[in-house]
């Protein structure tokens, strides 16, 4: 790959790193599904006898 193409690729990647948690709406939907499956702090304590992460 020549230098110009490398630079274009780098700029595209840097543009995507915009500080958000997701890059597009499909990622938002995917994260929402993952969060629905995640156990709450109470569920962790009751079912798995684990301590949840502290509030920040």
Can you give a write-up of this model?
The protein has 56 residues and is mainly alpha-helical. 62% of the residues lie in helices and 0% in strands. The protein contains three helices and no strands. The protein has helices at 3-16, 25-37, 41-48. It is elongated and about 55 Å long.
Q: SSE string, helix = H, strand = E? A: HHH
Helix content: 55-70%
Q: List the total number of helices.
A: 3
List low-confidence stretches.
none
Beginning-to-end CA distance, first to last residue: 45 Å
Radius of gyration: 19 Å
Report the sheet-strand fraction. Answer: under 5%
Major β-sheet profile: none
Structural class: mainly alpha
Tell how many strands the DSSP assignment holds: 0
Q: Please state the average pLDDT score.
A: 77
Shape: elongated
Structure summary:
The chain has 56 residues and is mainly alpha-helical.
Features:
single chain, 56 residues, 0% strand, elongated
